[in-house]
Automatic annotation (TrEMBL):
The keyword rRNA processing does not apply. Residues 395-421, 454-471, 481-515 have a biased composition (Low complexity). The chain crosses the membrane at residues 12-30, 36-56, 63-81. Keywords: Cell membrane, Chaperone, Membrane, Transmembrane, Transmembrane helix. Residues 336-346, 367-383 have a biased composition (Polar residues). It is found in: Cell membrane. This is Periplasmic folding chaperone. It comes from Rubinisphaera italica. Residues 516-525 have a biased composition (Basic and acidic residues).
Length: 883
């Protein structure tokens, strides 16, 4: 067997020449062609012609003639292809058509200049750790908008420069490069960058000259927005002036039956006026948006469910046992800080101790006596006080503020005795505090402790002046009887019998007798502790039904996924016929594909459907074809926020070429409401276009628009009558309009008066700003009772054109309703003006809403200027809806 390298060894010289030539062509010619793709077709045709001529000439004597003829013929054919290719215009202007190739070439030239500036800046600042790239951006060219629109504006600015013979010198270009690199670019780096970019010095300067000309002309022609004090005052009013409205809406629909039949001439006149305008605004629009026609196979959930066997008891039990952790009860674990010796009896460790005893934490022991008064700091005795022979019941705490000094066993002075001032507490000595002031478990538990309960009604506490003992008086022994004038606790609280469960402490000991148990406490019976929950939920009937439904759903969806996968493979075979078809027989192939898809659906008990031509909005809102509201299947069916919709799958394309390539590509979708599956593809599409009078459905649209316009006129006349009626009436609006209808005729909708709350022209958006350093954006305030939405024209009408108390008319956003409105309770303008003048320091902050509004005004000014330039050059985008 011959070696596979035998041919190479035999024709080594020829093949090496061919390989070397291809390498040179790839590195030299192809690299240049990427800068000018328009030259590719003729060069490629010439090379193909040379190859064919060399192959046909063989060993002929005059082979060079064959090569010459082949090269010329190939170049001519390639040039013809170039003409056809570049004839695909993207924009029409007054000076001719601009192709996609020209726009792309403009974008590439700008990109080359910016790339040079980036490389030069990096070379000039190679020794710096953090170069200032923000400074570099100020010397680069172009904006952040749509590249195609930026390229078109570049071409238009070149036309403006030609009118005045505007030019840029080489010195200006050199100065621009020096400023961008801070005069740090060396000659060696400059030449190295030119070699890497395959540019000569002249080519680079020509590219810079073109960009600097368009940039300079644009800066000269483009208006600059400068906010005046009046602009700031207008912005301030939009945010700070509020008012209310009384509203009587009148529907345009109520007057359509009063409109006569239009004449054809009237309809054609209306069509000609609005045929280039898109629908959706307050005025008619007959320009047709892009529409697509879909074909899809639907896998019905209910149909598949009938083929799945029912779930048995054994299946339910087996699933329960295998997935028992899913049904574990939420039993709380042990207390996080539980240690040995903690009270595990079930008592709440946060229950506050009785108010007539000390506040003790868990594990703390009571002091030997709680009835001995604390001596004054000035006279501290080292002797332990004698135990009290008897303990009088203490009055209960109430929620009234505690006195400055804590009540003690010291008797209060007699009536009429002045209470000495409280002495200062020596440094380092803690002041005695009541149990209300000491809160070992925080303020929350102290508040709970302070609340009175039903079993322990609050008792009125003596006033501080009557209960506070003089600080100079030393504490008396506990045996000393209290003075008769001292209010006894027994008078405000019934005496409590002492408990006999513990004997009193023997005489001479320091133990405190047991606290008497109150009758109310005796009567309380602790509630029976609830039985602990089992570790797992029991497999009762309810849980069985849940498991049975879950298993059935999972099995149905699994079967549907299997059906979808099989159908997807079959549809790929069917639809691939379209991709391999020639233009001449493509229509016949389309019919064959549709027929094959329908037969497959019927054979497998599925449903094949073709939609009408739908726009994106029509497809999403279609009730006959719910596929429009479906999304890509999600692994978690309850998290579809990021799922792509069917509308986005078919309409989110950049150009017609991408839409054409998308034909008969099968997509997958699932209805989130019914779980039905769809395998769908695009059959055909209609690009956005200006319709003709005879186009299907156009005359009906024009007639409907004409009827709406006439009905709006009648509704406005009726609203004017109602407004005048309300101005001249001395009754309330409700009384005045009690028997009135929208159209003024019986059987029509009665007029209803509604009232808004206070609102301003603009308000802060509830949505967060994508930029975390910027405040939320401003938006027009929403007024729910205004049907059709609120626009700037509506706000202009009710805030600028009308005064407080005026009655006027205001259209809703979509002009389906006209509203009779009265302005009420508008803010006092002079007061707002004074606030405006007093807050000038905050008006000019970059984050102030007024500055943001001025930025918006500046942007709107540029949009209007851009529109004027487009109008001047009669710019019309082809197959694009942006402009």
């Amino acid at each position: 067997m011959k070696s596979p390298f035998a041919v190479f060894r035999k024709h080594q010289k020829v093949l090496m020449v061919v390989l070397t030539g291809l390498a040179m062509f790839a590195f030299v010619v192809l690299d240049s062609l990427t800068q000018n793709m328009a030259a590719f077709p003729p060069i490629f045709g010439c090379l193909v012609g040379l190859g064919l001529a060399w192959w046909l000439s063989g060993k002929a004597k005059h082979s060079w003639v064959w090569l010459l003829v082949g090269g010329v013929a190939g170049g001519i054919l390639g040039n013809q292809f170039q003409i056809d290719y570049t004839a695909n215009a993207a924009v029409k202007t007054s000076f001719g058509e601009i192709s996609e190739t020209e726009l792309n070439s403009t974008i590439q030239r700008r990109g080359a200049v910016n790339e040079f500036l980036t490389r030069a800046f990096q070379a000039a600042n190679s020794n710096e750790e953090q170069p200032n790239y923000q400074m570099l951006r100020s010397f680069q060219f172009g904006g952040n908008g749509d590249p195609a629109q930026e390229a078109l504006m570049h071409i238009l600015m070149l036309k403006e420069a030609e009118k005045i013979n505007f030019a840029v010198s080489n010195d200006q270009i050199s100065m621009h490069i020096d400023q961008a690199t801070n005069n740090k670019l060396s000659e060696a780096d400059y030449k190295r960058i030119l070699r890497e970019m395959n540019l000569s010095d002249t080519e680079l300067y020509d590219l810079f000259r073109e960009q600097m000309i368009t940039q300079s002309i644009r800066r000269q022609l483009m208006p600059q927005y400068v906010a005046s004090p009046q602009n700031y005052w207008d912005a301030y009013q939009k945010i700070n002036v509020s008012e209310e409205l009384a509203v009587v809406p009148i529907s345009v629909e109520s007057f359509k039956d009063q409109v006569g039949t239009p004449k054809e001439d009237e309809l054609k006149e209306l069509f000609e006026k609005y045929k280039d305008q898109f629908p959706g605004g307050p005025e008619p629009g007959f320009r047709q948006p892009g529409r697509i026609k879909l074909g899809y196979i639907e896998i019905d959930y209910d149909t598949v469910a009938k083929t799945i066997p029912e779930v048995t008891e054994e299946d339910v039990t087996a699933f329960y046992e295998a997935n028992k952790d899913l049904y574990r009860n939420n039993v709380p674990g042990e207390f996080p800080n539980q240690t040995e010796g903690m009270n595990l009896s079930g008592e709440n460790p946060f229950d506050s101790p009785p108010l007539d005893g000390p506040l003790l934490g868990p594990g703390m022991t009571a002091p030997e006596s709680t009835s001995v008064p604390i001596p004054s700091p000035e006279k501290t005795s080292s002797e332990a006080p004698k135990p009290a022979e008897s303990i009088s019941p203490k009055p209960e705490m109430t929620t009234s503020p505690a006195p400055e000094s804590t009540p003690s066993a010291t008797p209060a002075p007699e009536t009429g005795t002045s209470t000495p001032e409280k002495p200062a507490v020596p440094e380092g000595t803690s002041e005695p505090q009541s149990s209300l002031i000491r809160k070992p478990f925080g303020d929350a538990f102290a508040r709970i402790q302070d609340e009175p309960t039903e079993t322990q009604p609050p008792v009125e506490t003596p006033k501080p002046a009557e209960t506070t003992a003089p600080a100079e008086t030393p504490p008396k022994p506990a045996e000393t009887p209290a003075p008769k004038e001292t209010p006894k606790p027994a008078e405000s609280l019934p005496p409590v019998e002492a408990s006999t469960s513990e004997p009193p402490a023997p005489a001479g000991t320091t133990e405190t007798p047991a606290e008497p148990v109150k009758e109310e406490m005796k009567a309380e019976v602790p509630p029976k502790a609830a039985e602990p929950l089992p570790e797992f939920q029991p497999l009762d009937d309810n849980l069985k039904e849940q498991i049975r439904t879950q298993l059935k759903t999972d099995r149905v969806l699994e079967k549907m996924e299997s059906i979808a996968a099989e159908a997807r493979g079959e549809l790929f075979k069917i639809n691939s016929r379209y991709a391999s078809a020639d233009d001449s027989n493509r229509a016949e192939i389309v019919v064959e594909v549709q027929k094959a898809a329908d037969e497959y659906a019927k054979k497998n008990n599925l449903r094949y459907v073709e939609t009408p031509y739908y726009s994106a909005e029509e497809l999403g809102e279609s009730e006959d074809h719910p596929i429009g509201s479906s999304t890509e299947p999600a692994a978690n069916r309850f998290q579809r926020t990021e799922a792509v919709t069917v509308v986005e799958q078919h309409f989110n394309v950049s150009d017609l070429q991408s839409l054409e390539r998308q034909r008969y590509i099968v997509f997958d979708a699932e209805d989130p409401r019914t779980f039905n599956r769809f395998l769908h593809w695009q059959i055909d599409f209609m690009a956005t276009h200006t319709p003709t009078w005879d186009e299907e459905g156009v005359q009906e649209l024009v007639k409907e628009a004409w009827i709406s316009i006439q009905a709006q006129k009648l509704a406005e006349e009726r609203a004017t009558e109602v407004a005048e009626m309300l101005r001249t009436s001395d009754k309330t609006w409700g009384e005045t309009l009690e028997s009135q209808t929208e159209s003024g005729k019986e059987g029509s909708q009665s007029l209803v008066v509604s009232y808004t709350g206070p609102f301003t022209w603009l308000t802060r958006s509830s949505a967060p700003n994508p930029n975390p350093f910027m405040p939320p954006a401003l938006e027009i305030s929403d007024i729910p009772i205004i049907f059709g939405g609120v626009t700037n024209d509506f706000m202009e009408n009710v805030f600028r054109d009308m005064k407080d108390g005026d009655i006027g008319l205001a259209w809703g956003g979509d002009r389906r309703y006209i509203n009779v409105v009265r302005v009420d309770n508008r803010s006092e303008i002079e007061k707002v003006r004074r606030e405006f003048l007093a807050s000038q320091g905050s008006l000019f902050s970059p984050l102030a809403p007024y500055m943001m509004m001025n930025y918006d005004e500046g942007r709107n000014l540029l949009i209007r200027w851009n529109s004027e330039i487009y109008k001047q050059y009669e710019v019309k985008w082809i197959n694009r809806e942006e402009e």
